[in-house]
């Protein structure tokens, strides 16, 4: 965003009618996206607050529940997601420098990583179903901590589920963007959609960066 | 249309194009404001209908008109509709949508399509709630307290919650749009210290919408999940804590109270300055008091929970912080009063509403201090005292400001004048009806009548009859503007560009404004409210 030298005279079709300049349009999109991410922080914040309260109430149950999570699959997923952040950043760079083929490739790679993450997550979820660790009627856990361990799994499914919903939305948007990039509708002067989706994608990654230690690692050793 | 000189049959946003499609697919903020106006009016009268039934039931002590289950549904749906579908969107979505870009000198909001989306989201959320009402309603109170809402209630909790969840996003989108527009789309010369106070109020409101509403969203999702899957988060038998719900809920819903009053304060600042023909007293203080209210509002939620097993130390802190909110609120009231001092006051209908607002908001605010006092709150919590208190803020404050603002900008919005004398009469009827309805409720609450019961001891009947009588006067008062507004759209006298000789960019463009808001892009050269004794009236 540092080097953009479009002026009023450059009457691009990318400029919406109600803006005076592409700078103004970019500044609005950028601020809008950051504000949106702020609302996302508050949204996930409610879950994190609840998690913190119950973890403080029932540390033993949360550690017991944590031992039933698959640290290997979770670890692999963390790597996959970080890799997707890298490809997303490279896609933003490709969009800004106008390398169309690279842009398409990196966007596709990001989609692949995202799908891989969701696939592994689905495997993890299916193990929990098989082990009767899904909160609700069929939840089975031996011992006096059963209710509170169920609470842990409620947070596990609530938080990772909400995260997964954001991944699905992100992948859908990436698909649309890939199509636009492939058709050549994006350019260095109109790279904002890629940059904004990049911000979103990184945000969703960061949420996972908090979820992984909180759910999988904390108190385990 | 880009001509500076306006030819007599001028093209404006209302006649630029016609047809249902040109309205339902519009991205013009002015048309979206009118879409909101229509849907909000529907919800206002629906919510009002529930209030009518409540007041009818309370005419007699016996509880003979409806059963207690039905009564629970009546006050719940009155609350849900009035709060989530009328008060929260009211001034921002209608007047804010119409005026924010014009006051800033912009052609539209930063994200016009998101703006249209916000109206659709609002409408879809509203439909969910209407379906819930038609199929039997919901009886948890508008607050959805757990574990009743999550475990025991036998009404349509999930459907209603979904409606509120969806509608919340319209609030978020509107707030986000206003914030970005204020930051990036001000006309040349429109500095922050020249912003009309209406804009400062909307800026502060938008901050709350953006920061608070997502917390409500996740809270409602958790209630729905708890209800559908028994996940245990609010269920004590699994170790969950129902009081956590109250914390999360009030973290949004207390700031939401300020969503429901700050925009009204913005309207009052505009109206008072115009009809007192004076520069607003202490502009900086009034502007920053809006932001102060928004910020402080996030740290007082615990005053809703003084009797909910909250630790007394937390109660003390929340009580103290709640008192602090009185400071910026009082700053506003004192500065409006100081603005009136030695002003040349004209009692047009908007001004009568503004005067009413100042008085009623002061009563509502001061009784809020009673409630923020720990010991007094133990005595009056969950009585009609609190009902009267928040109706003085919400109805005496926000609805008065909404109507005042509608009258003030009606010539700009429609290009037609409303009938002034009839409007004055309606404003006075509303003021009288309002006080007769709600002042007796302070007394009822202080005497110990609890809220949310459909029967009561006989000694409370006189005051309840007074309240119901007042409500019918209030109802008539609300119907009158509804009728003459509709009438004036066709038969009202054509409005000049600036019928009140007011300052502000919105009065520098034709009535109604062209689709692009201005015939020539505006440049701002002076502060807001440059009213003064030397001003020359020009038409």
From TrEMBL, chain A:
<protein>
    <submittedName>
        <fullName>Cytochrome c oxidase subunit 3 family protein</fullName>
    </submittedName>
</protein>
<dbReference type="GO" id="GO:0019646">
    <property type="term" value="P:aerobic electron transport chain"/>
</dbReference>
<feature type="transmembrane region" description="Helical">
    <location>
        <begin position="71"/>
        <end position="91"/>
    </location>
</feature>
<feature type="transmembrane region" description="Helical">
    <location>
        <begin position="103"/>
        <end position="120"/>
    </location>
</feature>
<keyword id="KW-0472">Membrane</keyword>
<dbReference type="InterPro" id="IPR013833">
    <property type="entry name" value="Cyt_c_oxidase_su3_a-hlx"/>
</dbReference>
<feature type="transmembrane region" description="Helical">
    <location>
        <begin position="199"/>
        <end position="218"/>
    </location>
</feature>
<feature type="domain" description="Heme-copper oxidase subunit III family profile">
    <location>
        <begin position="30"/>
        <end position="220"/>
    </location>
</feature>
<feature type="transmembrane region" description="Helical">
    <location>
        <begin position="164"/>
        <end position="183"/>
    </location>
</feature>
<keyword id="KW-0812">Transmembrane</keyword>
<feature type="transmembrane region" description="Helical">
    <location>
        <begin position="140"/>
        <end position="157"/>
    </location>
</feature>
<keyword id="KW-1133">Transmembrane helix</keyword>
<dbReference type="GO" id="GO:0005886">
    <property type="term" value="C:plasma membrane"/>
</dbReference>
<dbReference type="Pfam" id="PF00510">
    <property type="entry name" value="COX3"/>
</dbReference>
<dbReference type="InterPro" id="IPR000298">
    <property type="entry name" value="Cyt_c_oxidase-like_su3"/>
</dbReference>
<comment type="similarity">
    <text>Belongs to the cytochrome c oxidase subunit 3 family.</text>
</comment>
<dbReference type="InterPro" id="IPR024791">
    <property type="entry name" value="Cyt_c/ubiquinol_Oxase_su3"/>
</dbReference>
<feature type="transmembrane region" description="Helical">
    <location>
        <begin position="31"/>
        <end position="51"/>
    </location>
</feature>
<dbReference type="GO" id="GO:0004129">
    <property type="term" value="F:cytochrome-c oxidase activity"/>
</dbReference>
<dbReference type="InterPro" id="IPR035973">
    <property type="entry name" value="Cyt_c_oxidase_su3-like_sf"/>
</dbReference>
């Amino acid at each position: 965003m540092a080097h953009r030298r479009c002026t009023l005279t450059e009457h691009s079709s990318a400029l919406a009618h109600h803006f005076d300049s592409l700078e103004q349009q970019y500044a609005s999109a950028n601020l809008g996206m950051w504000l949106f991410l702020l609302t996302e922080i508050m949204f996930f914040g409610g879950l994190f607050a609840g998690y913190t309260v119950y973890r403080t109430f029932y540390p033993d149950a949360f550690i017991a529940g944590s031992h039933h999570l698959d640290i290997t699959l979770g670890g692999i997923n963390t790597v996959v997601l970080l890799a997707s952040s890298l490809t997303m950043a490279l896609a933003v760079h490709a969009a800004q420098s106008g390398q169309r083929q690279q842009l398409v490739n990196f966007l596709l790679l990001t989609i692949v990583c995202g799908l891989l993450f969701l696939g592994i997550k689905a495997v993890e979820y299916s193990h929990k179903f098989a082990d009767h660790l899904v909160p609700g009627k069929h939840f089975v856990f031996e011992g006096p901590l059963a209710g509170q361990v169920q609470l842990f799994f409620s947070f596990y499914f609530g938080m990772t589920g909400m995260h997964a919903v954001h991944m699905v939305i992100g992948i859908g948007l990436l698909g649309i963007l890939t199509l636009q990039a492939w058709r050549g509708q994006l350019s260095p002067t109109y790279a904002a959609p890629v940059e904004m989706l990049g911000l979103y994608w990184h945000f969703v990654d960061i949420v996972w960066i908090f979820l992984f230690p909180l759910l999988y690692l904390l108190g385990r050793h | 249309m880009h001509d500076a000189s306006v030819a007599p049959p001028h093209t404006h946003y209302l006649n630029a194009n016609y047809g249902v499609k040109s309205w339902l697919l519009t991205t013009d903020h002015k048309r979206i404001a009118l879409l909101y106006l229509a849907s909000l009016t529907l919800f206002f009268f629906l919510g009002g209908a529930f209030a009518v039934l409540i007041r009818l039931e309370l005419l007699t002590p016996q509880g003979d008109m409806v059963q207690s289950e039905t009564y629970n549904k009546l006050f719940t749906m009155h609350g849900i509709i009035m709060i989530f579908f009328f008060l929260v969107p009211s001034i921002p979505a209608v007047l804010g949508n119409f005026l924010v870009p014009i006051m800033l000198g912009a052609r539209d909001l930063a994200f016009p399509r998101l703006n249209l989306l916000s109206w659709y989201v609002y409408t879809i959320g509203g439909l969910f709630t209407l379906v819930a009402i038609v199929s039997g309603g919901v009886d948890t109170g508008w607050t959805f307290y757990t574990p009743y809402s999550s475990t025991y209630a036998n009404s349509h909790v999930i459907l209603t919650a979904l409606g509120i969840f969806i509608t919340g996003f319209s609030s978020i989108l509107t707030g986000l749009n206003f914030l970005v527009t204020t930051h990036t789309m001000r006309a040349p010369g429109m500095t922050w210290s020249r912003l009309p106070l209406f804009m400062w109020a909307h800026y502060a409101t938008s901050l709350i919408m953006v920061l608070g509403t997502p917390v409500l969203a996740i809270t409602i999702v958790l209630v729905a999940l708890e209800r559908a899957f028994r996940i245990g988060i609010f269920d004590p038998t699994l170790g969950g804590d129902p009081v956590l719900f109250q914390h999360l809920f009030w973290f949004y819903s207390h700031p939401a109270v300020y969503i429901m009053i700050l925009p009204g304060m913005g309207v009052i600042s505009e109206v008072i300055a115009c009809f007192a023909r004076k520069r607003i007293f202490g502009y900086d203080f009034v502007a920053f008091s809006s932001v102060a209210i928004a910020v402080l509002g996030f740290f007082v939620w615990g005053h809703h929970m003084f009797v909910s097993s909250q630790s007394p130390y937390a109660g003390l802190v929340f009580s103290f912080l709640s008192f602090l909110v009185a400071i910026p609120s009082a700053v506003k009231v004192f500065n409006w009063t100081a603005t009136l001092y030695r002003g040349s006051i004209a009692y047009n209908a908007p001004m009568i509403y503004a005067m009413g607002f100042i008085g009623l908001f002061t009563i509502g605010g001061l009784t809020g201090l009673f409630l923020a006092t720990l010991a007094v709150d133990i005595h009056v919590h969950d009585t009609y005292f609190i009902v009267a208190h928040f109706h003085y803020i919400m109805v005496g404050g926000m609805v008065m400001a909404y109507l005042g603002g509608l009258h003030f900008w009606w010539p700009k919005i429609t290009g037609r004048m409303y009938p002034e004398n009839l409007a004055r009469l309606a404003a006075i009827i509303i003021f009288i009806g309002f006080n007769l309805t709600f002042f007796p409720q302070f007394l009822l609450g202080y005497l110990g009548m609890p809220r949310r019961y459909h029967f009561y001891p006989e000694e409370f009947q006189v005051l309840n009859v007074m309240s119901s009588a007042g409500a019918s006067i209030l109802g008539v008062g609300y119907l009158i503007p509804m009728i003459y507004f509709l009438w004036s759209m066709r038969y009202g006298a054509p409005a000049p560009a600036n019928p009140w000789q007011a300052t502000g960019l919105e009065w520098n463009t034709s009535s109604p404004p062209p689709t692009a808001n201005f015939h020539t892009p505006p440049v701002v050269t002076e502060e807001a409210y440059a009213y003064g004794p030397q001003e020359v009236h020009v038409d």
